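Input for the complex:
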Amino acid sequence: MKEIVVISGKGGTGKTSITAAFAMLAGTRAVIADCDVDAADMHLLLQPDFAHSEDFYSGFKAEINQELCTKCGKCKQVCRFDAVHEIDNLYSIINLDCEGCGYCAEICPVKAIQMVEQNVGKWYISKIKNNAQMVHARLGIGADNSGKLVAKVKKEAKNIAQEASKDFILVDGSPGIGCPVVSSLSGADYVIIVTEPTLPGFHDMQRVFELIQNFHLSAGCIINKYDVNEAISEKIKSFCKKNSIDIISYFPYDETFTQAMTQGKTIVEFDDGNLKKILVDSWKKIKLLTD
Amino acid sequence: MKISIASGKGGTGKTTLATNLAYLLSQKSSVILADLDVEEPNSGFFIKGKEIQEKKVFKMIPEWDKEKCILCGNCQRVCKFNAVIKLWEEVLVFNQLCHSCYACSELCPQNALPMKSYEVGKITEFEQNNLHFVEGKLNVGEEQAVPLIKETIDFTNHNYSSDILRIFDAPPGTSCPVIEATKDADYIILITEPTPFGLHDMKLAVEVMRELKKDFGVVINRYGIGNDDAIKYCEDEKIPLLGKIPNMKKAAEAYAKGELLSEVLPEIRNAFESIIENLRTWDVLL
Ligand code: SF4
Ligand code: SF4
Ligand code: SF4
Ligand code: SF4
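Predicted:
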């Protein structure tokens, strides 16, 4: 079983559209994991049935029991996040600022502070429209544990894939280089970077590649909208060659991506021409590269 | 006035909007543009200016003093982030996981975990006439964007008078980095694309702004692709539609090269000018 993670660094490069198309091509041999939990969109194309759902708890917030509080002010003294406020000798926690470190609860002399575990989202196991299984999630508003939720989604997908001896776990990763991406990458067998030939796109790709190198993972690259700037596309290609990143394929600038999305379809269901051909060839190549 | 530019989905034009608004507004008076998308800051490709200063940003993490430690394990017990672990005869600190709460350090009975600084990124300040540009950039390998976002905002507060207009380029998404980049703003502009992904993620962003009780309006980028569902949504929800930026392949090409769209494409400049007009109508700008 191979775990293939698709990431992009920068948003808006077509990562999710391309990953969803691969999901359709892989069929029931793959388990799909949507790890872009912060802005999960893959369900709009794959139509999961949300058959199984569970709450996800992670992290804490402090809560003061006013009946026990002796107003000694120690909690306010130790809190490094200015989350304890005192108004008219009444101590309270500003939820949004509380990091959940538990220092205040630890030192409160009368144990008036309780650390309450937070419900930060939901995760689901679904069947998608081609009968493959998909694990996905929804992060609660402003939650700060997206990395942990990503880890959970990946773990569940792995369990399913192992039990049913599937060939692939196909992961739609998160953007950026922070904790959700780090969680998306850990345990991957192969990483696909979907990029675009724009200065920001190339820059973000290089940053995310640095991260991939820290993990010693092998990687491939898909250049979307390559004709938007062919000179930068060439630079991306040389960067890939220099760093032994497999060049998987190029896609032209094509609004078919959006048209397919508008109908809730993946590109391989919508387009019978050039784009579909590139996707089919790309998926074949990825299978060979990860074999 | 502080305006944050945010979007649920990445790649919908946050940076384009932030840089063009800052540039156009700076023609008349001073503007501060702060790039708070510290994981992937991109405003600097479009705003060229003279570098004024660079400042390294540190966070505090505990450092184990083997000589003093009696291996009581209290540090591991108090850390809610599993950032310090006692393994056999050793105490290990995982720098990336540490939230700098000081609990382990101050509660160590032996003072064996003094806090020391550790570099997580940098802030660079640039100047181009009336436009002051401040960029926060996280070091690759660091996982927490929030402390650096906070530092970057503090930097603008310390270095500039509070009556100068601030425009923040916020990170994408709906989780903690976005909250940090929007919670102090007076007004939020959400930018989206008129596509199902764009609309879906905008709805999430709207929920966040409502939760934070923020005033906000919407700008539609790449208007002309996709469908009108996003506009209909704004009408139904009574969300001010501040403007539409037309979809043009030329815009994608100019963006690719790091060109400021309002300098090279008059149609697009008009769209930004009308967004500024609308912001005045809504009393966001004077
Ligand atoms: S430390 Fe405990 S008793 Fe003292 S003010 Fe805080 S909550 Fe109240
Ligand atoms: S848990 Fe930590 S961040 Fe929250 S109020 Fe207590 S000391 Fe402050
Ligand atoms: S709390 Fe201090 S003395 Fe105890 S194990 Fe940790 S470092 Fe060592
Ligand atoms: S400072 Fe806080 S977060 Fe960092 S290791 Fe110590 S207890 Fe954990």
